[in-house]
Amino acid sequence: xxxxxxxLFFTKLFELFFIVVGATFSAFAIENFLVPNSxxxxxxxxxxxxxxxxxxxxLSLTIVLINIPFMYIGxxxxxxxFLAKALFSIIIFSLLLEVFHHFxxxxxxxxxxxxYGSALLGVGVxxxxxxxxxxxxxxxxxxxISKNTNLSVGQFVLxxxxxxxxxxxxxxxxxxxxxxxxxxxxxxxxVDEISEGFQKAKAAMIITNEGEKVATEIxxxxxxxxxxxxxxxxxxxxxxxxxCVITRIEIPELKNIVSATDISAFVTISDVSEVIGAxxxxxxxxxxxxxxx
Length: 293
Description:
Layout: H1 2-34, H2 43-55, H3 59-78, H4 80-100, H5 110-130, H6 138-148, H7 153-172, H8 174-195, E1 201-208, H9 211-221, E2 227-233, E3 237-247, H10 251-261, E4 266-272, H11 283-292
Antiparallel strand pairs: 1-3, 1-4, 2-3
Helix pairs in contact: 1-4, 1-5, 2-3, 2-7, 3-4, 3-6, 5-8, 6-7, 7-8, 9-10
């Protein structure tokens, strides 16, 4: 047991280290490539950059303040572990924005700033997401909306960013909006490579001895229905095989649930190209389940 606890401690420490590395890359990309050339990121960062360029609001503080309501939504739907890593990511990111704000921009060539800045930002965001952190709270709101509408998380984020880039085009000119859109596209592709699935659904298959307990915790904490199958290991004997579809941002929470319930469980996570039908419980069902417990 001590060996497992020690392994878990170093795993969490490793994750925090790479969140810091990711925040460093992201802050440097924004302050020394994108902002000096009036190129926007998406989501909360994009809104904050617009306010910074228009009114001179401090970028680091603006990002923290705008993210507060989104972090609360994330906490209510994904739990305190998500909140802890998200807050850690955003605070470190904001502090590093202040540090790099005093550095000179790397280049004033807008094309170079777009390509290299967005690629570096993608690496940073990808590392943070892979370790369970979060820099943009709009995905938290997207999860809530996806539970009550036909919109996926990715579709909601795309709608938000379309509005942001449209506003940027109106204020800063169409060329800046187009460069910002190119930056967003590059960042998304890099994040996709780093975190294995930006804005994509994931299929999780869990082979466990505690099928009912794991399924109940997934249903209660993430809001995902689980299909249970009977399995038979060649050596280990009878097993429960659980199948559920989750979003990429929920993967860290799923891992926490499984490891806390059955440390001997075997988990595989794969891409899902399309999801048809309801796979998230309604708010009414979630409220009822919490009351029962």
